[in-house]
Design brief:
6-stranded parallel sheet, 34% helix, 6-stranded mixed sheet, Rossmann fold, 12 strands, alpha/beta, binds 2'-monophosphoadenosine-5'-diphosphate
Length: 270
C-alpha cells in the first residue's frame, strides 16, 4: 500500500454498493501502472436523499473521481457544474470528474454496452429488444441507435418506455408483451429483475433462441438465470461483467489520464 497524504481519492457511490467490484478493478489498475501512490479507489453507500450533502463533501474534500451506480445516475445531475454532451443526450451520469473544483458529469455506460456487443455483431439494421427504461437503459438506447440498430423498449412502467422510445426513435411495449422479443436479434436486460430475487428472469426461456445475442447488463457474483437459460438455448451471451469492465476502462482514463491496463483489471474481477 502506497497511500500518502497526496494520494487522490476516487470512489463509487450507490445504494446498495457492497456488491460492487469497482474498487478491486480500479485499484488493480493503479497498482499495475504504479500510480497507487497517486490514486486510491473506495466505495461508499450514499442514500439518494443525501446526494446534495455528498456533493458538498466532494468539493470540500477535493475527491478526484466518482462512479455513480443505482440509484444516483440521474439524481446527481442538478448538482454538477457541467454535463458532457453525450451524458446530456443519454440523460444519465455514471462518472464525475473533479477538475480543480469544477464537477463535470460524463457517461461511459454506453461504451460498456457497445464495445462487448460489437465483438459479436454489426449493429446496423439489427433489431434490439431493450428491457427496462432507467439510467442503464438510456445508455443502451443511445449506444445501439448510434450504430443504426432498431429499438423496441419493454418496461414495467409503460409511460417510461414510451418516453425513452420517443427520444431514440423506438417502439414501446409493456412487460405483458414480452413474447415479442422472440423476433429480436439482440436482447439487453437493464432491469434488476434477477438481481434481488435470483430465481427470477425478465424473459421466459421459450422466447430465447440460438439466433440471438442475450446481454444481461446487470452483474452479480454468480451467473444470472437469464444468462444460464440463454446458454441452454444456445444463444450467444454477454454478462454484466463485460459492461462493468468497458465502462470502467473509459472511467479509469477520465480519472487518471492513463490508459487502463485492461487485462489486469479484467483479471482482478473475474
Ligand atoms: P438503472 O439506473 O441501473 O437503470 P433504474 O433507473 O432504477 O436503474 O431503473 C431500473 C429499471 O428496472 C426500470 O426500468 C424499472 O422499471 P420501472 O420503470 O417500472 O420502475 C425496472 N425494474 C426494477 N425492478 C423491477 C421489477 N421487479 N419488475 C419489473 N421491472 C423492474
Amino acid at each position: 500500500m502506497n497511500i500518502t497524504a497526496r494520494t487522490k481519492i476516487c470512489m463509487i457511490i450507490g445504494d446498495p454498493v457492497e456488491h460492487s467490484l469497482s474498487p478491486q478493478m480500479h485499484n488493480a489498475g493503479y497498482e499495475a501502472l504504479q500510480i497507487d501512490d497517486q490514486f486510491v479507489y473506495l466505495a461508499s453507500r450514499v442514500n439518494v436523499n443525501d446526494i446534495a450533502d455528498f456533493i458538498k463533501g466532494i468539493r470540500a474534500m477535493h475527491i478526484r473521481g466518482i462512479s455513480c451506480t443505482i440509484p444516483h445516475k440521474i439524481a446527481v445531475i442538478p448538482y454538477l457544474d457541467k454535463i458532457d454532451a453525450v451524458a446530456k443526450k443519454i440523460g444519465a451520469v455514471n462518472t464525475i470528474v473533479n477538475d480543480e473544483g469544477k464537477l463535470i458529469g460524463y457517461n461511459t455506460d454506453w461504451l460498456g454496452i457497445l464495445v462487448p456487443l460489437e465483438k459479436h455483431i454489426t449493429l446496423q439494421n439489427k433489431t434490439v429488444a431493450l428491457i427496462g427504461a432507467g439510467g442503464a437503459a438510456r445508455a443502451a438506447a443511445f449506444a445501439v441507435t448510434k450504430k443504426g440498430a432498431k429499438l423496441a423498449i419493454y418496461n414495467r412502467t409503460i409511460k417510461k418506455a414510451k418516453e425513452l422510445a420517443k427520444e431514440f426513435n423506438g417502439e414501446a411495449y409493456s412487460l405483458d408483451e414480452i413474447q415479442n422479443v422472440k423476433s429480436a436479434d439482440i436482447i439487453i436486460n437493464t432491469t434488476s429483475i434477477g438481481l434481488k430475487q435470483k430465481n427470477k428472469t425478465p424473459i421466459p426461456k421459450k422466447y430465447i433462441s440460438n439466433k440471438q445475442i442475450i446481454f444481461d447488463a446487470v452483474y452479480d457474483s454468480e451467473e444470472s438465470r437469464l444468462i444460464k437459460e440463454a446458454k441452454k438455448q444456445d444463444a450467444q451471451t454477454i454478462s454484466g461483467i463485460e459492461m462493468l469492465l468497458h465502462q470502467g476502462f473509459a472511467q479509469f482514463r477520465l480519472f487518471t489520464g492513463y490508459e487502463a491496463p485492461i487485462d489486469i483489471m479484467r483479471k482482478a474481477i473475474t
